[in-house]
Amino acid sequence: MRVIKYLSLLTFLFLFTTRSFTQIQERSSTYGLVHTPKGNLHALIIFVHFPDEDTTNWGKWKYDEIPDFAKPDNNSLFSSEINQIGTKDNLSKWYNDMSMGKFKFTADIFPESIPLKLKGRQSNGNINKEIFLYIDKQYPNYDWSKYDQRKNNPSWKIDNSINPQPDGNLDYVILLYRRKGMGGLAAIQGGYFPLGNYKVSSGYTSVRTNTNSEGLSDLFIHEFGHNLYSSPHIGIANGVLGQYLRGTSAWSMSNATDRVFYTVNAWERWYLGWTEIKYDIVKPLHDTIVEIDDYITTGDAIRIRIPHSNQHLWIENHQKINTFDRHRYLKNAFGKELTNPKKGIYMYVENISPARNSIHSFNTGANGIRVLHPEGNHNFRYKDSLYKEKKWWGQSVYDFYTTTANPIEGYALNHVVMFDYNKDGHIRYNANANHPRSKKNEGMYIFSLNNQERCSWTGEGLAFKAGSIINIATNPMVLPLRKYNQRERLMTSAYLNGLSIKVLSIKEGKSKISIAYNSYGINQKTRWSAQEIIFQADTAYEQYANLELNADLTLAKSQTPAIHDKINGSYNRSTILRIASGNTFEINKDAILRLTDSTHLIIEKEAKLIIEEGAYLICDKQVALLIDENAIINNNGEIILSKKTQVNFLNDAVSQSVVKPISLQEITNLSNVKLFKKYFLTPNTALFYKGKRLKDKDESKIIRRFNKAQASHKKFTPKKYIDFYIDNKKHFIAVRGRKFSYKGFTYKNPIFK
User: Fold this and answer.
1) What's the whole-number mean pLDDT along residues 197-226?
2) How far apart are CA 327 and CA 460, in angstroms?
3) Which residue from 170, 223, 556, 672 has the fewest beta carbons nearer than 10 Å?
4) Alpha helix (H) residue ranges in 501-560
5) Do 635 and 704 fall within a single domain?
């Protein structure tokens, strides 16, 4: 039975030691911080109770005794002997299976639950001092030697599992305070404590101990991860978002206990030296097809470098063969079975450490894993009616609804959704990597979506199936994690890439997956929103790239908050698409690029915008076009500009800040009509009005005239819809309604059906 009441309020604390974390060349994450995660580590577990605080029995756990689940030598927490590992689904088996048999973690239970009357000794350091004074006095002849087999604290410098030698310091002591709740420390506070001829300093303290072995084990894995490699908080543990304004459920050591899988992830396995990466794809010369077996039992995984970053996409094949390859909790508070993650392919973007000599990532790696959801990212809204849901242990719940697709900046089912729920004019955001207590992040799990009960944290729907495709046109996309600058209220730019992932097959537990780096075709309808989207070739792969639009692409302002404080009354900035110098954006026949909601399209110096015959560029709602005079515009298609469209031809257009408001000329004030013709008309096209070709001096007048809806010619109907439309074959004619006529020719515009 699950006993955690509030999923988002779990209390995990990581205490920093006074060690220097300065990186030196010889250091390696595989050596570990407090201990190297290899060989045999034998720990001591001590239960502590407080008779002046609580003398009630917790079910079968009597207040002054060791609980039944910890009494046998081979118990529900740990096995005492190596040869017992695997006979019970306990922590010893967990570390053995996760490490592929490299790490044998065993432990003994101290024979007495230590009674301690507080008498004002409320600090953990004072409590611990009294615990060891009691033990030292009551057990003067106890053999402590079997708990001192290694030299403690390798601090990433040495492997202390090779030829281990005692150092007079007990290797690892686990203190379990008998207090209801859930909270732990990856340390034994108070310094060094004498114990016979030994001393105690390394270990873990459960300051609030769960009433069952499952809860104890969950919390221990989390805190011991901090000890092993200074693991950052992942999967919204402690409500941590770190440097990001987005976060998803996940699986890792220092996850929240509601981890998707009760396992480590492939990045952790590799980082700790438990596995090597089977397919580490950095710069393939051609499309690559690989095959991976079940991740947990074989260690197979794929790591793919994401262009424009030092971040990676990891791919795991979960066939649920191992007993731990599932969600930890099987039922809700009413005893109803939860939806467990299915067999299939799981993918996540990692931005913690790309190399084993890059250590101590507790701060920089916080929330550094983003799990992709096959259903994609969307704009969300919610019903403004908060209620407590008993079957989710009294968790606060909103009813959420998806609106339009938003693959770059939206939320998915497994996200924590950020909104200004309390209507105080800003969204609470705290970048603290440990525990944002004073200012908790204003995010909510999803339990209800589109009037259906959904479980965002159990891994529901996260498996990619055979036939799944991810590329530049799909939802979701594979992009680097974008950090959030709280002071500037700005996310880092979203760099598009040609990465394409295809799950070709899953047969007999093995999966074939195709990886390509040059897939730049937008072949299906999609919608992009982000503060700045940049199309630019990653020069590690190619000098320039060609983005090809073969479908309908809409650029619009995001409807999901992307900043924590409003700008001009909105939690979103306008969307910007920047075609970087030397790169090409080609709109092919029958494709439509729609710019709306104050979108900016920037064509940099020597970049190309090609509009093929039968293609459309439609600009609406105060759209801005910033075109460098040295850009190359080849228009054989049709461009439709609203009268609020702003066009700016400037030599320094590309250098203008996209953070600050941009001052633009409106097309109605454009005096250089020759420059307008250069970019928006084919070389031999002339402008006609009333069947008569215009001279340059008249062109400016007629453009302004149409744009101000002042045309008086009776053939133009209806007058109120007049903008301007360029038909580069026959006439310069006005369009904004569903159809119009000119010189006896009726034109029904398919764009406005």
Assistant:
1) 90
2) 10
3) 672
4) none
5) no
